[in-house]
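Take just one protein record:
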Amino acid sequence: MGLVRLGTQRYPRVCLKKPRCFGMEIDTPDKIDTRLTSPPCCETSAMQLKIGLAGAKMRKKEGGSSTCSTFFLILFLFGSFVLPSFNLNRSQAHAAGGDQTKFQRIPTQFIAALGDPRATAGSGAQSWGLWPLDPGPRGVELNNYKRLKDADGVAPARWKFDGRDWWMEEHGLIMEQPTFPLPAGKYMVTGARDVTAVLTIHHADSNGDRRWDLDKGATLYDVTHLACRSARYTPAAVGGSCSPANVQKAAFPVPPGGAMPPVEGCTKQDYAVLIVIAVGVKD
């Protein structure tokens, strides 16, 4: 089964049936930013995490591939025991504008972001979206696209497919659209690698533009989860066809950090995916 390092402890890997974009294989970072909690919690909650992870192994589907997906479960268990809320450290409080913002743990959400990967701040956040629920398990496989059409575009998870504006992830799953725009506020985000940072989405200015910034000098690339690839597909011509039926299945899976494949008749826009583990709340 293997072990995963979490801070100074090592825990069993949790095996799920199939890899999926937003619930897929993730390498847990060797270091957890213990400044998020006081006191540091990797040690104090080791037994609770071990108990939770020990019962989480799932049987692999016969004949199917398997993947070891631990990060989101660890986030959930980690948060359940030690992250009901926490104060920012001094540098984070300064980045929050000097107020005493606290962060409340939430079920994992995902941000679809656009911007220069090297930037620590920018504009255009009105074009960023939010998946409040994990869209991966709610997606529809390309082989089932005809069935989706026959159901008037209503997916088994009850979201509605829009043939003029649809999304796909790196395993070729058709996903529901995120909610636009991403609400103004503060989000604790990570790319499940080395960096966790506070993302601030500012209110729109008089021109409707929303600025964004990351604290601690983090770049958009630093907090992008590279294994999660997502793209938005819209018709390349007015009145033209942009259909998942034209997707080349051989293009999947898309490697971490790779571009999503083009689709005939479509204009493609790749989005970075940020994992949200907590949101800011005022004292």
Summary: The chain is about 10% helix and 30% strand.
